[in-house]
Amino acid sequence: MEVTTIQIRQRGVITLPAKLRQRHSLETGDTLTLIDLDGAFFVAPRVSLVPKLAAEIERLRQEAGLSIEDLLEGLDEQRRRYYREK
Q1: Under 8 Å between Cβ of 64 and 55
Q2: Around Cβ 47, how many Cβ atoms within 10 Å?
Q3: Which neighbouring-strand residues pair with 35?
Q4: Alpha helix segments (H runs only) across 1-86
Q5: Rounded mean pLDDT of the chain?
Q6: How much is the average pLDDT of 57-82?
């Protein structure tokens, strides 16, 4: 466990040390969750899954050698199958 001292600045702004931001891949604009445990604060990254999922889908698409057009064509086929079943 690492203890770090931070200071509240104007308008309640706090700065996380660069070392922590780098270690946890935090960037400007990232959202954090602050939980008040009766005077003890817990701060945790609030990770959005959408960018991570999009990056994973893109990686898999490239790995499979598929174009965006291939994916869209497959989507159209899947929609037709779905509507036939329903």
Answers
A1: no
A2: 13
A3: 42
A4: 18-23, 49-64, 68-85
A5: 87
A6: 89
Q: What is the pLDDT of residues 36-46, one digit of tens each?
A: 988 888 888 87
What's the predicted TM-score (pTM) here? Answer: 0.49
Query: Which amino acid makes up residue 60?
Result: L
Q: Rounded to 5 degrees, what angle do the CA atoms 17, 20, 26 make?
A: 100
CA–CA dist 53, 12 (Å, integer)? 33
Token duo for residue 79:
């929609």
Identify whether the C-beta of residue 26 lies closer than 8 Å to the C-beta of residue 16.
Answer: yes
Find tokens 């598929």 and name the residue: 66
d(CA 58, CA 16): 31
Give me 45's structure tokens: 């990254």
C-alpha to C-alpha distance for 29 and 71, rounded to whole angstroms: 31
* pLDDT of 64 above 90: yes
